[in-house]
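Entry 12.
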Amino acid sequence: MSQALALMPFGELTEQDIVTVRETIAKDCNDSQFRLFMGIAKASGANPILQEIHPSVFQGKLTVQFGIDFHVRKAKETEGYLGYDVQLVHDNDTFKMHQEKAEDGRYYAVIDEHSWGFPRGKVVGGYAIAYKEGYAPFTVVMDVEEVEHFKRSQIGMQKTMWTNYFNDMFKKHMTRRALKAAFGLRFDDVEPADSSPASYEAPQRKDITPEVAVMEEKPQPQDEDDEVTQFKKAKFEMKKKFTQLGITETSEILAYIDKHAKPKGSQPTLAEITGLLKILDMHIAEQQEQAASEDELT
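Predicted 3D structure (tokens):
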């Protein structure tokens, strides 16, 4: 680690604290990513030593996550904070709820009954309630199916945490949502590609040969010039989406295509590229949701 990084000032953190962060939670960051991460931590007031914020590098792309402890601390600093509750619902529990309409016309959820014995069975859902003085309790209710995809995450640590510590991760996920909504917490998980140093963002490749599968019906007939233009636009969009996913090497692109799509001919058609764009959009959305919900078990 360079001397400049080691001596970077950061609130109450000592030089040794910064070295510890660099060698532990930020060990996968390069120097530019580490500088960016520490800058975001300082600007937000989140302490990486207390696990309030941590970086994640996936396929060369940096994402910054705010931990549950930071959400709780910021909520406590908000006027009117009265605490929160979070519970899991199991398939042998008795659980009933309904909605009521507040005076301002907005609806809110009311838990009528939640009782249980043992064995409780598998987790089928859960809820988190945030309490704020002068307001109806804000309740987040989720079915377990809404978070099952985290167990299939391509991010190694996220998949491990959600598989091995599912109940705790599910509780934290719901708590974060409830606190952010009830107390207007504006910070969120960050993918700082636009504000990062040039050395951080992976460069786009100029030549990428698309290999895709047919994912939709044939397009309507159109004149040749218009189809050529659309083909070029679709290929350009494909390049951007691969870069957004952090997939920039030819070998990675071919591996992705081999796993998710196979063209019928030697040259892809406009329909085939359009089909691949849909697959890329789906994985980009999943990656963004995963990044926004990833937190550490503390």
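Annotation: The chain is about 40% helix and 20% strand. The beta strands are 53-58, 61-66, 81-90, 94-101, 107-115, 123-132, 138-143.
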